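Input record (one chain):
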Amino acid sequence: MVNAATGARPAVLSDLVPAFPAASGALGVRIRDAALVLGGAALTGLAAQISVPVPGSPVPVTGQTLAVVLVGAALGLNRAALSMALYMIAGVAGVPWFAHGSHGFGGATFGYVVGFVAAAALVGWLAQHGGDRTAARTVGTMILGNLVIYAFGLPVLVAVTGMDLGTALVEGAGKFVVGDLLKIAVAAGLLPTAWRLANK
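The corresponding structure, as predicted from the sequence alone:
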């Protein structure tokens, strides 16, 4: 079906959101997109407050990664990347919406935050090409997104803490595999279901 706001078939779920009604044409679409970008950053900040320390690791279990991949899939490449860039920049500037209500630049987990931008962009691009339309595709998309987060997070963890690579792999990735698989399962249920309900 054709999206009323853009005149094109919806590529990602947020394309189904109508343009801002008080503004006409392209301005209404831009206002909608800005609201989606801000909303994605706020969702990630809220999810970051679901934070559980992991014994022996400076990296907590949070809801951030689930929010990042959902935002990526829902918003598509450009809006998702902007949303996570906003999340990162605002957190560096002082908004207390990193894990544990923290903010600022650097630290053992900051590489993961940088990875959110790249992961959301990749997941968004894959979603634009149908990567969230079925459960199987969604699982593959989410796995790739999580791997990108680790690819950015682990080198910073090693550099800041002085851990050797093997220890970092355990403390910064291995201890989170089960949680990540559960988050991926949630995404694999939510996203294709949302498409089916939208009947697009």
